[in-house]
Amino acid sequence: EEVTESDDEDNLSSVLHQRAKMPWRACGKYLSAAGILLLPLLLLSQLLKHTVMVAIDYCLALWTEHAISIKIEPEAKNCSQCMEFDHSPYSKVFSILCCLGIVLCLVTSIAVEWTGLKVTKKLHSSLLNKIILAPMRFFETTPLGSILNRFSADCNTIDQHIPATLECLSRSTLLCVSALAVISYVTPMFLIALVPLAIMCYFIQKYFRVASRDLQQLDDSTQLPLLSHFSETVEGLTTIRAFRYEAKFRQKLLEYTDSNNIASLFLTAANRWLEEYIGACVVLIAAVTSITSCLYNKITSGLVGLGLTYALMVSNYLNWMVRNLADMEIQLGAVKRINGLLKTEAENYEGLL
Questions:
Q1: What confidence tier does 96 reach under pLDDT thresholds 50, 70, 90?
Q2: In this structure, are residues 279 and 316 in contact, taking their beta carbons and an 8 Å threshold?
Q3: Which of 86, 136, 232, 289 gives the lowest tally of CB atoms within 10 Å of its CB?
Q4: This prediction's pTM
Q5: Separation in Å, CA 308 to CA 15, 19, 169, 194, 269
Q6: Is the pLDDT of residue 140 over 90?
């Protein structure tokens, strides 16, 4: 009995370790199916887009700082003549950056959708060829519903959900990195606290990802009985009224609703905990370092405001990054299942002589 318990504990630890790991093989399979040209185009367009977005915010900070300084200097020197500030150079640069950002957003969206379409076509074509050439023992041992799910539900996930999640994940990751880079540029003392924050964020997201994935699956599994019971009740409303079972069906509907609400409540609470815990630490450290640098190093108020603005948004970026990472893990299961069928050995058939 002791050996059995130790084996169960080892199996449980191995299962938990597997759940905490990112399916890198499925991710590599998806990215390799995108091709050599589309993947660099996707990464380059995302980097350029977020660089332009940071440049727009930096231009606005300089514009505001120079406009305020022109008005404050005559008042500090008790001058009656007020200098007029020329807004035209800043407005031209701002307009050019905005137009460039719109073009890059369009290019990024096209690259994401093009990548998803190419990956879906390639995986679907490869899967169809494997299934057609599969031996008869494969169809005798594999349920037909499982094969149909690979062609319907999994291909639909790869076609529609993974490209959108990949775009959201890359956007939130780059936004988080750019926000931390701006805060570090404004207040270099923030780099000292960045290392322990990064370590803390790594361990928090490692455990949060597993919990978020399980809670999302629990939310989905409790939503299906609720919708099924509601549709069945609406269709059989005449029979229910004839047998006077309204109270029974109402009570069952409330039970399904409570089960789904409990799962949604825990999922929302976990997301809020992640956002508030890490975000509060980043905002506190950024605010303290910004005020200290402003008092002793004479940093302009525009840059301090830019750093604090990005610090307030880091919590939201981190939350969406981890949530999108958890969603990506769930959706990459479709690629993993299709990749498992792609390893099926073909029938040894050479045709008629």
A1: very high
A2: yes
A3: 136
A4: 0.69
A5: 42, 36, 23, 15, 26
A6: no
Predicted local confidence at residue 275, as pLDDT: 62
Tokens (6 digits) for 71: 């008005």
CB atoms within 10 A of CB 87: 12
So what's the pLDDT on residue 3?
41
Q: What is the pLDDT confidence band of residue 255, given thresholds at 50, 70 and 90?
A: very high
Please tell me the total number of residues recorded for the chain in this structure: 353
Written as one letter, the residue type at 137 is R
Question: What is the number of H-type helices and E-type strands within the chain?
Answer: 12, 0
CA 4, chain centre distance (Å): 40
Query: Could you tell me which of 171, 167, 165 has the C-alpha nearest to residue 50?
Result: 171
Separation CA 155–CA 216 (nearest Å) = 20
pLDDT digits (tens, 9 = 90+) for 143-164: 877 788 888 888 888 888 888 8
Q: Is 1.20.1560.10 the CATH number for 26-76+83-342?
A: yes
Residue type, 3: V
DSSP state of 351: -
Residues 6+ apart with CB under 8 A from 1: none
Residues 107, 118 contacting (CB under 8 angstroms): no
